[in-house]
Design a protein that fits this description.
The protein has a single domain, classed as Rossmann fold (3-Layer(aba) Sandwich), CATH 3.40.50.1820. The protein has 271 residues and is of the alpha/beta class. The chain is globular and about 55 Å long. The mean pLDDT is 96. The protein has an 8-stranded mixed sheet with strand order 1-2-4-3-5-6-7-8, sandwiched between helices. Helix 2 packs parallel to helix 4. Strand 1 and strand 2 form a beta hairpin.
Length: 271
């Protein structure tokens, strides 16, 4: 079957159906803000074809159909205004806040079962997936993140060069960064099995955060195999070649991520 595209409660999506007939589990993803930066491009980069579930790739705010005019210039303007208050927090908060209504509509429109879902997030989309986990409002069977924005402070460190000067922290941005520090909030995240994937060539701070998140989570699980940290050789931060707007052939490094996540969800996301 061909991918299904549409809008659920205002959120663009690309849905990939499972091979079998009848209701199947649901696996939801949030893409990167760089490559791949749309739901359609992420579906091509990380299709998870062998997972017997509906894989629904949601569009992030400010991306794809919801991009601002002159997206690159708009991004620069936002980070110059305030990286945390104008960019990181609004994007992550909106994506997490709009998810319950989108999920309810997807359940009405697709033949998915009513069991706990799987979630995947990449880069800033990883922060969305972790925030959804930490809220504990939606039953989650298993989760996976790749090159994730696990700590807002680390994301600021990567982005502040775009603003042309060091970020000036203030009381409100520190409060938000504490809320978007999922190592510190490991107690909230812990519960379902969590796979943490890190590219060998990803930014050093993000690699450190990935290792620390996995370590903090392991302390909170009775079954150690329910938390796994995997390094993908040769993987930098993007999962697709830039600009990453349109679907493109899957890169070998993305295929390696796909294989690891497929194994994870075959084990933990069951009919």
């Amino acid at each position: 079957m061909e991918p299904i595209t549409g809008i659920a409660a205002g959120v663009p999506f690309t849905a990939l159906p499972p091979a079998g007939a009848g209701p199947a589990p649901l696996l939801v993803t949030w893409h990167q803000m760089d490559s791949p930066c749309t739901n359609a491009a992420f579906a091509a980069a990380l299709p998870l074809h062998e997972v017997p579930a509906w894989r629904v790739h949601l569009g992030m705010p400010l991306c794809g159909a919801r991009s601002l005019p002159d997206r690159d210039a708009a991004f620069v303007e936002l980070v110059r205004r305030d990286i945390v208050l104008a960019y990181i927090d609004p994007v992550v908060r909106q994506a997490a806040d709009e998810f319950p209504a989108a999920l309810a509509e997807l359940r009405e429109r697709l033949p998915v079962d009513d069991g706990p879902i799987g979630v995947v997030g990449s880069s800033l989309g990883g922060a969305v997936a972790l925030r959804v986990l930490a809220r504990r409002e939606i039953p989650i069977a298993a989760a996976a993140v790749v090159n994730a924005g696990i700590r807002a402070r680390s994301v600021v460190g990567l982005v502040e060069g775009v603003a042309g000067e060091p970020y000036r922290w203030h009381e409100e941005s520190r409060r938000i960064a504490d809320r978007l520090d999922f190592v510190a909030r490991a107690e909230d995240v812990a519960g379902p099995p969590v796979l943490v994937v890190s590219g060998e060539l990803d930014f050093p701070d993000l690699r450190t955060d990935a290792a620390e998140l996995a370590g903090a989570l392991r302390e909170r699980y009775a079954e150690p195999e329910h938390v796994r940290l995997v390094t993908i050789p040769g993987l930098a931060h993007p999962l697709a070649e830039p600009p990453g707007v349109e679907p493109a052939p899957q890169l070998p490094t993305a295929k390696a991520v796909d294989d690891v996540m497929t194994e994870w969800f075959l084990r933990h996301l069951r009919r």
